[in-house]
Design a protein that fits this description.
679 residues, mainly beta, Jelly Rolls, Phage tail protein beta-alpha-beta fold, 14-stranded mixed sheet, seven-stranded antiparallel sheet, 45 strands, 42% strand, globular
Amino acid sequence: MKYASLQYKMAMAKQFRDKAYALVSVGIVNKQAQSNIKMVNTSYLSNNKTSLRAGKVLNTYASFEENQTRADGKYLFPPENNEFLQLAVDVGTVGNNILGGIRLRLNTDYDIKGLTIDFGKSYPTEFTVTTNNVTHTYTNDAQVFTCTDNFDGTTYFDIVPIHFIDGDNKRLRMNYILMGIGLLFDNDDIVDLKFSDSVSYVSEELPSMGLTVKVIDDVHLFDVDDTSSFVNYLIDGQELDVSLGQRLADGSIEYIDMPRTYLSNWSADTRYMSFTATDRFVTLDKKYSGGNYIHTRTLYDDAIAVLTDAGLEPDEYFVDTCLQDISVTNPLPTATQAECLQLIANAGRCSLKQRKNGSIRLEGNFENIIEPTDLITYGTNEADWSNAGNVRFGSDIVYADFTRNFAPADGSMLFIPENSSEYLDDTTYVSAEIADINGDFINNPTLTMELPAAFTYHGLQILFNGRHPQSMNIKAYYEDDLLDDIDFRIRDNETYIEHSFIMFNKLVFTFTKGNPYDRILVNKITLGELTDYTLNRDDMKAEPLGSMEKKVKDVRVKVFSFNPPSEEGKEPEVVEDSVYYAHNLHSTGQTITFENQLIGTEAHAKLVAEWMANYYANVISYKVDYRGDPRIDASDIIYLESKLLHSLQVEVESHELKFDGAYSGTLNLRRATNMLVKE
C-alpha cells in the first residue's frame, strides 16, 4: 500500500471526488522539481507555463532580432496592448535581453539527473548552465539538447547563451525544458492511461506489470520521418514514471508515484502517440549459473548474488533479512535472473515485486500466519521475577511488591516467594527500576519486540498491570535503521496506539515517565491490523463477483536431493526419488504439488507447505469493479465490505487502474484469513 496523507484519504472517500491528475515522464525526470519551476528574467513575449509541457509551442512572436522577423506566415505580430500577449498560450519562453540568460528558480533544493531543453530552430550552439553549486559550458548542434550531468542540491538554473546557430543578436528561447532526460505529459496531453499489476502471493510465478499511455500529438512531435523528432530519443528499456494526483480540500494536489515501468513499444500516427511499458523483471532475462553447485549458504546470499549479477546497485533492491534465517545446500538451477529470484522468494516465503523507482523487493510474506511464538520480546534491567518474553501472550500471574499502591488485598496478586528459585515462569515484564517522587527513572525501563521479517502493522495495544505509566517512546527499526521515533501520552491501562508502523522488524518501547515509587508492569503487547484500507460498497460500481475454486485436500512440497556432477563442468544431478512433505487441509479435494529444487530438507518443505496451504485453504475469490485508487498495490491486504461481512480480509492478487481524466479500476481479490485448520 502506497503512503498517502490523511487529507488525500479524505479526498478519495468523498462521494463526489475533486479533479484527478496524471503526470507521465519518459526518461528520468524529477517531477517535483518540474512542478515547482518559476521563470525569471523572461520577456513579455513569453508564456512561461507553456515551456514546462512538451509539444505545446505552436506560435512564435516576431521581434526585431536577427532572423526573428521572417515573412513566411509562421510568426505572429505582437499585439499593441501588452496585456494581450499572454493570450497566445502556445508560445514559449523568451529571454529578456540579447544574449541574456533565463533563470529557473526552484522552491527548494532538488537532486536532478540531466536536462532536456527544446530551444526551437534558433538554438544556441554554445551556452552555459550555472546552478548554486556548479557551472557547465556546453556545445550543441541540435534543436533538442540533452545532458546526463548530475545537478545535486540545486535551487536554481541560469541558462546563458554564448553563440546561436543563425546569428548572435537575439534572445534565448525555450520551447520546452525538463528537469531530467525525456518527455513529460499531463492531463492536457493524456487521452487515456492503464496500469496493471499482478503478484503471486506464494511466488508461484513471476510478478507482472504493464502500462499503456495514449497522448495527443497535434503538433507532430513524434513524426517518425522527422530526424529532429523526440521519437528518435526513445529506446527500449527507457524509464516511464507515472504520478497520479488528487486535488485536496485546500486546493493543493497530492501525487502518488506508481511503480516504474520500462518502455517496450511505441507507435504514432497523425494525431496520437502510444507508449507501452512493462516491468523490470522482463529485463532480467540473462541466464544465471553462478549458484548451480552444491554448497551451503543462505537464501539471502543467493538473492544478493543474483541481483548483483543483474547489475543492480544496493539502492535498487530490498532483500528481507528473514532470508538469512534459511540455509540451503541444493543448487540454484541455471535459469534467468528473474526465475532464480522467484525460486528464492518461494523457498523463503517471500513476495517478489517491483515498486517505486524500479526497485526489486523480496519481502517476508507470512504475516498472516505468524503466531505470538514467532515474536521475540525482552527487556532491560528486569526485576528478578520478570519474564519479558511473556508479554507476547499476557498473564494473570502478578506478584505484589511494596511499591506504592501495589498490594491490594483482593486476592488478585501473589506474594513474592522468599526463595527466588520458586518464582513462577508465567509473569510478564516488570522493571527493576522504581520511579522517584516525580515519576522519573535513573535509567528508563525499555522493552523490545522483534519480528521474524519486516511487516507493516496499523496500530498496537499495550496492557499494563498496576498503575499505567504516564508516557513512553516507541522507536521502530528495520535492522539498525530507525524508521519511527514517536512519543505517546498514556491515559489508561488498556492503551491503543493509533499509528501505522511501516515495514519494520523491531520495536523498542522506552517508558519515560512513571508514577511516584512505582515500577513499570507490562502485561501484554498486541500488534494491530495488517491494513487500514477498506473497500466500501460505496466505492464499488457493482456487487463483487465471487467465485470458488476446487477444495484442496493436500498441499505437497517435494524434497529434492542432489549428487555431485559425474564429470567436471557438468551440473549437479538430481536424485530421482519421490520424497514429499504433505500438509493436509481437508478430507476430500484436489492435491496441489509444488517443486522447488532449493528445498532440500523435510523441515524446509514443512515450512513452505504450511505457508502455501494457508493460501490454498482460502478458495474464495472476488472480482470488483470500483472507482479506482492509486494507493493500492498487488499483494496488499485490504478489507472488503460485503452484504454479510463489514470487514472481510482479502489479498489483492491483481489491480488494473485506468485514468481518462478520472480514475476507475478492477481488483482481483482472494480471502486472506488464516484458515490452517483441518476438517
